[in-house]
Amino acid sequence: MIIECLTVGPFAENTYLLGDEDSRDAYVIDPGGDTDRILRLVSNHGLTLRGIINTHGHIDHIAGVQELKDRTGIPFAIHEQELFTLENAPQAAALFGMFNLRKPEVDRFLQDGELLSLGNKTIQVVATPGHSLGGVSFHIENSIFVGDALFAGSIGRTDFPGGDYQTLISSIKNRILTLPDDAIVYSGHGPETTVGWERRTNPFLTGGVS
User: Fold this and answer.
1) Looking at the DSSP assignment, which residues form a beta bridge with residue 144?
2) How far, in Å, CA of 131 to CA of 163, rounded?
3) 150 exposed, middle or buried (CB, 10 Å; 0-12, 13-18, 19+)?
4) Rounded distance between C-alpha atoms, residue 64 and residue 60, angstroms
5) CA 173 – CA 134 distance, rounded (Å)
6) Superkingdom, according to UniProt (predicted)?
């Protein structure tokens, strides 16, 4: 499996290129900008993009979606409960001086438990709300892309519209920490980590922070 992480934009958001080495098919997860860099990586690996899939709709994760759609023609999918966030994205971006953010057009909605084909592999959509109302994660083989639900040593904010602390903790414990200890966690910001490390040391999950 091909996994490339590009840290982009003023919020240092992690955009992921996820590809299958046999079929050369690929998805982009949470394109936050720097479309040229994404497309160079796609070309360097000889991949064919099949779609854009997003963990949630906050501005740092969707800032590059529409440009990538325009330049490639690939579809964009996100959970339906993120529509309110998408509708208000240009106004939210303007508060941070980002006056040119384009609201992306959604082609279809992701469903909890849905399986997406990536060559002969499958990506499972896992509902992980709490940071946002319709937040999802993407589980493939021994990896899970969690957006802003879980970070190395921390968790996502819950003070945005649609956020809820107890919902997020439940999502992490019941939908992410159920994976094996060696499962790799790819977050929307910061370094990768593992399920086992977070289970043992993350203060929000061990009772160190309540």
Assistant:
1) 139, 185
2) 5
3) buried
4) 9
5) 17
6) Bacteria
Q: Can you tell me the distance from the alpha carbon of 152 to that of 149, in angstroms, rounded to the nearest whole number?
A: 11
17 forms beta bridges with 4, 28
How many separate domains does the chain show?
Answer: 1
Residue 197 scores a pLDDT above 80: yes
pLDDT classification of 95: cutoffs 50, 70, 90:
confident
Neighbouring CB atoms inside 10 A of 135's CB total 32
98: β partners:
none
Give helix then strand counts, H and E, for the chain.
8, 14
Range of the domain at 72: 2-206
What is the per-residue pLDDT for 96?
82
Is beta strand 154-155 parallel, antiparallel or unpaired with respect to 184-187?
unpaired
> DSSP letter at 107?
-
Q: Which string of DSSP letters, residue by residue, matches 117-179?
A: EETTEEEEEEE--SSSTT-EEEEETTEEEEETSEETTEE----STT--HHHHHHHIIIIITTS
For position 124, which CATH number holds? 3.60.15.10
131 close to 160: Cβ distance less than 8 angstroms: yes
pLDDT value, residue 178: 96
pTM: 0.95
- The tally of CA atoms less than 13 A away on the side-chain side of residue 208 is 12
SS3 per-residue string spanning 24-53: CEEEEECCCCCHHHHHHHHHHHCCEEEEEE
